[in-house]
């Protein structure tokens, strides 16, 4: 049972990549067939240009996931590299969000028309909101390090509840060295 975790990671990544590629293929086929067969009158060259341009981030993310997540095996079948965790938090999670949103916009554009691509504007807005909240959180966290108001906050903010109760009863004052 050597490398059990690596083998499990490789199996998970393979299944995730297979599912992702199949969903992407199904959505692309759905778009092309429905546009050519049902909505032929509204299907123009601009429709396919919009599809190509706005689906490019999803295809790039899929390619990236394929690069980092696909397990590598030796010619004898031994696992060389299990691939990065495709269920990781952080940037990978954000990339999955973009992929899912692109698929949703593609399905909406297929059924509702080219104006549904305007829903894709949510991605940069979401990115800006995430950046702003991250920066705001860092700014609040770093405010205490500036040292501007350290003296006033030190008298009661650094004490535990037990120390506060003792001082309230008039007992022994806490001394800081």
Tell me the layout of helices and strands.
Elements: H1 4-37, H2 45-69, E1 72-73, E2 79-81, H3 91-112, H4 122-143, H5 150-154, H6 161-169
Antiparallel strand pairs: 1-2
How would you characterize this protein structure?
- It is flat, with a radius of gyration of 27 Å.
- Residues 149-154 have low confidence and may be disordered.
- Helix content is 66%, strand content 3%.
- The protein is mostly helical and 177 residues long.
- It has a two-stranded antiparallel sheet.
- The protein has 6 helices and 2 strands; from the N terminus they run ααββαααα.
In a nutshell, what does this entry contain?
The protein is an all-alpha fold.
Sketch the topology as an H/E string, one letter per element: HHEEHHHH
Total strands: the figure is: 2
- The main sheet orders its strands as 1-2
Structural class: mainly alpha
Main sheet: strands, sense, barrel? 2 strands, antiparallel
State the shape: flat
Instruction: State the helix count.
Output: 6
Terminal residue distance: 55 Å
Helix amount:
55-70%
Q: Radius of gyration over alpha carbons?
A: 27 Å
Low-confidence runs of at least 5 consecutive residues: 149-154
Average pLDDT: 82
Strand content: under 5%
